[in-house]
Design brief:
The chain is of the alpha/beta class. Helix 22 links the parallel strand 6 and strand 7 (376-382). Helix 4 packs parallel to helix 6, helix 9 (154-167) runs antiparallel to helix 10 (170-176) and helix 16 packs antiparallel against helix 17. The longest helix has 20 residues, at 261-280.
């Protein structure tokens, strides 16, 4: 059955209308009628449910509306009422033939046809009958044509949007922008055109762009969803609204595990410009909000932690250039200095050492040493567990706002919370250059000496930029390549009146790892210690294993430690999916065994003959050193994040330990595992080297000199 909608701009003649309806029904059509007439004018021709007098529709909208449309000429008046009437819109969408019964009805029929491009739009009953006849004679042709024309035209899309925004006709817009429409290339293109159409108010354009973006995402066009927001932002004059759309575009991109450097740079720059404007007006809260947005976009974990590359590692100065041009960013860590220099180590009493941290992972050996040291009185402060500090340390935006010069009440709370600790301590050792370091340098330290240790994680985060290094006496890094990167990230460290940098290895008690090897033939057992992040890149180790097994299927890999959380980000999920596929294949062949988390790593290492460091980023890699001391042959990837620096694995470790590719790794292993005697001949000197340099018996003396000062 073909659906026909008749539109009358004036009251039709009763006899003419009755004849027209009879002819259309005889041709196999169902007929509906709308127009500028009273219901009595068409009584007896159609059922009441099939008729919609536009005079009634106007009256339902109130007297003000009736008076407003009464000033319009009949064609415009008919359309002004019809476009707002749900009955007319619904019947127009269903119709295959739209018929203007008179001249004033032509304009509303034309407008309705823009929304329903499947319909034949005609003027007069005779053309309507010809359209019905053609549809009956060529059903396949019209079915295909109707499918292609199912999506409204760009012009109609834009008008629908304006109407939806202006009148709140959300249901119409939701249907027109549904995911089903976005799945079609025609629909997606039509809406992209509408989003960038001229003369659309900023608020309406932003609202439309967000709606279209969401529907495109649901419709499987995720790249298009980002593109729509980016293009809309370029055409919005309101800077705040434009920046918000750009930020949404980047978040959508990162949420699907993708990075568009061009859009990301635009979004970060827009947020920083707003931060600068608000800071100039001393609106510290708004400035902090915009800075936080810039940080969240530029330091998203998917960019630096959950992938095997980082845009910042490739070019730290270039990556941070947009920040260094920002007045708000400069204000964060503006040098405030200290009122008094740090006092020398006390004479006649134990040195009071405060160890503050948000994570105690690397502190066990240090705490044990000084808890049993006769010349040290130690206190430990977990900032995430302390009842007074916990609410302060977890509020990043308040910390940022305070660093910009706002939040006087926060400053008072911080002073009250930290002053007792600073007054008690001779030396404050803050492990991890994150929120605890930002808080301890937000207040004057008095005469306490402040020592901060930075691990590689922080160099790729925003936290060091919230630290005032003129209030830090000593900055500790665990390797020369990390110091080199950190000085590129924090150029203020190269100036006067700032922290002195030191390279001190991680605290490791390596003696328990010196054990005899077990198993039939450890030379064929590769070990990977710790795979708790994508940065460990275990797939690189699996590639090495495949190359070895192509030569000798006795080679296998043991993975020690828990895997990483695939829920951390889209990038982590993507990597985890590929890793699990690889592991399933190799585990089925008996080539890989996962040990999981263990409290007895030394025992787990007794079967390992070759220890791998497959990481893309390491500040030191304790697991590799532990495996080396256990007597395993060390094979170290030239960590890509640091490969372009002057320092790296090749200067941290003996050069012959380090390889650039899986092929080089396989060659090193094959060359030194021809027999167990050959393997031991290389592994034993490596173990002695690691033990002499990095055991706590040697590194502990470096910590004594650093933390205890001039004391003997």
């Amino acid at each position: 059955m073909t659906h026909v909608l008749l539109i009358a701009g004036t009251a039709p003649t009763h006899s003419m209308l009755k004849a027209a309806v009879a002819q259309l029904r005889a041709a196999g059509a169902t007929v509906r009628l709308a127009g500028l007439f009273e219901r009595e004018a068409v009584d007896g021709v159609l059922d009441a449910a099939d008729v919609r007098p536009l005079t009634e529709a106007a009256a339902e909208r109130g007297n003000a509306f009736v008076k407003r449309v009464a000033k319009l000429p009949p064609p415009r008046r008919a359309w002004a009422i019809a476009e707002r009437d749900p009955w007319v819109r619904r019947q127009a969408r269903r119709a295959q033939v739209l018929v203007a019964l008179d001249a004033p009805g032509v304009y509303p029929v034309w407008r309705l046809a823009q929304d329903n491009r499947r319909a034949d739009a005609v003027y007069g009953v005779a053309p309507a009958l010809r359209a019905l006849q053609a549809r009956g004679e060529r059903p396949v042709h019209y079915a295909l044509r109707d499918a292609v024309r199912a999506v409204p035209s760009p012009a109609a899309t834009l008008r629908s949007t304006r109407r939806g925004v202006r009148h709140g006709a959300g249901a119409v817009l939701r249907r027109a922008t549904s995911p089903a429409v976005m799945r079609t290339s025609i629909g997606a293109k039509a809406w992209r055109t509408a989003v960038v159409a001229p003369r659309v108010p900023d608020a309406a354009r932003a609202k439309l762009a967000r709606r279209v973006s969401v529907s495109m995402t649901k419709g499987g066009r995720k790249a298009g969803a980002t593109m729509v927001l980016d293009q809309a932002a370029d055409r919005i004059a309101n800077r705040k609204l434009s920046a918000a759309l750009l930020a949404d575009a980047v978040r959508a991109d990162l949420a699907r595990g993708h990075d568009n450097p061009k859009v990301r740079a635009k979004a970060v720059g827009a947020a920083l410009r707003l931060a600068d404007q608000r800071l100039k007006k001393k609106d510290f809260k708004a400035a902090a909000d915009h800075l936080s947005t810039a940080f969240a976009l530029a330091f998203d974990r998917g960019l630096h932690f959950d992938g095997v590359s980082s845009p910042m590692a490739k070019d730290p100065e270039g990556y941070l250039a947009v920040f260094r041009e920002s007045a708000a960013f400069k204000a964060l860590s503006a040098p405030r200095g200290r009122a008094l220099p740090a006092a020398p180590a006390p004479a006649g009493r134990p040195l009071r050492l405060l160890i503050a941290y948000p994570n105690s992972r690397f502190l066990r050996a240090i705490r044990d040493r000084y808890e049993n040291h006769p010349d040290v009185e130690i206190r430990c402060l977990d900032v995430n567990e302390d009842e007074t500090l916990r609410p302060l340390v977890r509020n990043t935006k308040r910390i940022t706002e305070h660093a910009l010069g706002g939040q006087p009440e926060f400053r008072a709370q911080l002073e009250e919370a930290l002053r007792p600790h600073l007054d008690w301590a001779d030396t404050v050792f803050v492990d991890w250059c994150t929120n605890a370091a930002a808080l301890f340098t937000a207040v004057d330290p008095g005469t306490a000496r402040v020592v901060v240790r930075l691990h590689s994680f922080e160099a790729f985060s925003y936290w060091p930029h919230l630290v005032d290094f003129t209030r830090v006496d000593d900055l500790v890094l665990v390797s020369d390549h990390l110091r080199e990167l950190t000085e590129k990230v924090l150029p203020q460290l190269r100036g006067p009146g700032t922290a002195t940098t030191h390279v001190v290895a991680n605290a490791m008690d390596l003696a328990p790892f010196q054990r005899d090897k077990s198993g039939d033939d450890p030379r064929f057992v590769l070990g990977l210690v710790g795979v708790n992040s994508v940065a460990k890149d275990p797939r690189w180790a699996l590639e090495v294993l495949r190359l070895l097994r192509a030569k000798d299927e006795r080679y296998r890999l043991v993975i020690i430690g828990e895997g990483f959380d695939p829920k951390a980000s889209a990038a982590a999920r993507a990597y985890h999916s590929l890793l699990e596929r690889d592991l399933a294949e190799l585990e089925a062949a008996g080539a890989v065994r996962r040990v999981g988390q263990t409290d007895d790593v030394p025992s787990a290492l007794t079967e390992i003959g070759v220890v791998l460091s497959s990481s893309v980023r390491e500040s030191f890699h304790c697991g590799l050193v532990e495996g080396t001391v256990s007597g395993a042959l060390p094979v170290v990837r030239d960590w890509p994040f640091f490969a372009a620096l002057e320092h790296g694995p090749r200067t941290l470790f003996p050069a012959d330990w380090v390889v650039s590719t899986p092929e080089e790794a396989a060659e090193r292993i094959l060359a030194h595992t021809g027999s167990e005697e050959i393997r031991r001949a290389v592994a034993e000197p490596a173990a002695k080297h690691a033990l002499a340099l990095w055991d706590w018996s040697a590194v502990g003396l470096d910590f004594d000199r650093l933390l205890l000062g001039d004391r003997d």
